[in-house]
């Protein structure tokens, strides 16, 4: 089964008409996108983009052979053309199945927001799922295609707008490591170009230019997800948001909070509440600094926030704040604790995203204990960074890949 993406943008397209934002200003060339529309084997057209006949012609395709035109959502963007000679566009009721004369089978999928998703099965059995913007499948308790249908070969959805939709599909077992996930309905909420593709890649997805033709079932282009990622940044740099974004399209994440609670500290309570409110409802939380058993166990991805607070606890345990204790065995005790953590990160089979502070570029602390903490955190970051497939530095909310 072959698909051609006549458009890959949000209903209003990218850039949006008359929008002065930076994302729209830089959405040029291959990063300019018409409203999403999908041509399947030249026979089935999912949604309409402005000028579909010309869009198909630019891609070296024709819509003259289209036997079914299906709409997934109200088209509230620029006016779309209903090409003469094609079947009238329709929305299919949820759960209904259609058999197209071309040999394709189409099933309408119920969603949690207005619109209709479509599951398309090709003549050779390949399966794709297409979801409209801002939606996720409703009532997924198992494979969306029914018992025994297995994972989809390709899924096209609003990855950046509804990462939880991808998480639901993964949780239901219909999106796996072999599923080609395409981000469509791309809007101006994320800068185009490298940043758009980087964010999609962290979710195991990708975007392609308008006019691209793909073969459903090809595996070679699926992004590889790193097992271990270290996210560094200064205070209020956006490092925690970046770490959370990397896992928000995955179900059953375990958020490991190393800070614990601080009785009577209203500011700390507000910070904790802010982090908690940002997390998807399906995530679980563990408040602990005992990271080694978690890294050694099997289970869902871990988000560890943060290593600076873990180090604070480790230095407390080693008595490292006291010069006398530090020189009398505290240094060795802390080094052993750090080595144990580094070895656990190296050996883990879980997906791990760890957050740490970058404190080496600021003011030199006035006290010996403060300088000791800064130095030990720098060493910890170096050691853990050496064990991670990806290391990212976040500055002013912008993620800069270091590895």
Key phrases:
403 residues; alpha/beta; 28% helix; elongated; single chain; 7-stranded mixed beta sheet
Characterise this structure.
The chain is an alpha/beta fold and 403 residues long. It is 28% helix and 20% strand. The chain has 10 helices and 19 strands. It has a 7-stranded mixed beta sheet with strand order 5-6-7-8-9-10-11. Strands 15-14-16-17-13-18-19 form a 7-stranded mixed beta sheet, with helices on both faces. The protein has a 5-stranded mixed beta sheet with strand order 4-3-2-1-12, covered by helices on one side. A hairpin with a 5-residue loop joins β7 (117-121) and β8. α8 (307-318) crosses α9 (323-347) and α9 packs parallel to α10 (368-385).
Give the averaged pLDDT, no decimals: 89
Radius of gyration: 25 Å
Order of helices and strands: EHEEHEEEEEEHEHEEEHEHEHEHHEHEE
Share of residues in strands:
15-25%
Q: Which structural class is indicated by helix and strand composition?
A: alpha/beta
- Largest sheet, described in full? 7 strands, mixed
Q: How many helices?
A: 10
C-alpha termini separation: 36 Å
Biggest sheet: strand arrangement: 5-6-7-8-9-10-11
Percent helix range = 25-40%
Q: Extract low-pLDDT stretches.
A: 142-148
From the spread of the alpha carbons, the general shape counts as: elongated
Work out the number of β strands. 19
How would the blueprint of this fold be written?
Layout: E1 2-7, H1 22-25, E2 37-40, E3 44-46, H2 52-58, E4 68-70, E5 97-99, E6 105-109, E7 117-121, E8 127-130, E9 154-157, H3 163-171, E10 180-183, H4 194-202, E11 205-206, E12 213-215, E13 228-233, H5 239-247, E14 254-257, H6 266-278, E15 284-287, H7 291-296, E16 302-305, H8 307-318, H9 323-347, E17 352-357, H10 368-385, E18 390-395, E19 398-401
Parallel strand pairs: 3-4, 8-9, 9-10, 10-11, 13-17, 13-18, 14-15, 14-16, 16-17
Antiparallel strand pairs: 1-2, 1-12, 2-3, 5-6, 6-7, 7-8, 18-19
Helix pairs in contact: 8-9, 8-10, 9-10
């Amino acid at each position: 089964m072959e698909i051609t993406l006549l458009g890959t943008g949000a209903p209003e397209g990218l850039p949006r008409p008359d929008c002065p934002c930076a994302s729209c200003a830089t959405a040029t060339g291959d990063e300019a996108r018409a409203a999403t529309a999908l041509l399947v084997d030249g026979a089935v057209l999912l949604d309409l983009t402005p000028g579909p006949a010309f869009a198909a012609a630019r891609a070296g395709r024709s819509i003259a052979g289209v036997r079914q035109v299906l709409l997934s959502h109200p088209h509230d963007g620029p006016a779309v053309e209903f090409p003469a000679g094609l079947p009238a566009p329709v929305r299919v009721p949820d759960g209904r199945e259609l058999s197209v004369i071309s040999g394709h089978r189409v099933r309408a999928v119920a969603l949690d927001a207005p619109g209709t998703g479509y599951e398309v099965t090709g003549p050779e059995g390949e399966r794709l799922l297409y979801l409209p913007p801002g939606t996720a499948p409703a009532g997924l308790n198992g494979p969306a295609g029914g018992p025994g249908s297995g994972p989809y070969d390709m899924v096209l959805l609003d990855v950046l707008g509804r990462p939880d939709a991808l998480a639901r599909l993964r949780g239901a077992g219909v999106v796996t490591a072999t599923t080609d996930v395409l981000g469509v309905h791309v809007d101006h909420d994320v800068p185009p170009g490298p940043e758009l593709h980087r964010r999609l890649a962290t979710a195991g997805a990708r975007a392609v230019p308008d006019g691209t033709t793909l073969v459903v079932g090809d595996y070679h282009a699926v992004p590889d997800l790193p097992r271990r990622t270290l996210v560094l940044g200064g205070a209020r740099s956006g490092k925690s948001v970046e770490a959370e974004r990397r896992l928000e399209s995955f179900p059953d994440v375990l958020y490991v909070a190393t800070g614990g609670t601080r009785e009577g500290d209203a500011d700390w309570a507000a910070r904790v509440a802010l982090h908690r409110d940002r997390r998807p409802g399906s995530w679980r939380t563990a408040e602990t600094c005992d990271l080694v058993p978690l890294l050694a166990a099997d289970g869902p991805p871990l988000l560890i926030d943060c290593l600076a607070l873990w180090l604070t606890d480790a230095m407390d345990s080693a008595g490292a704040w006291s010069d006398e204790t530090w020189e009398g065995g505290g240094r060795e005790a802390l080094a052993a604790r750090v080595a144990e953590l580094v070895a656990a990160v190296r050996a883990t089979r879980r997906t791990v995203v760890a957050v740490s502070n970058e404190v080496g570029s600021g003011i030199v602390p006035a006290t010996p204990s403060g300088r000791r903490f800064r130095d030990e955190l720098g060493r910890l970051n170096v050691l853990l960074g050496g064990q991670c497939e990806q290391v990212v530095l976040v500055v002013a909310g912008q993620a800069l890949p270091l590895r």
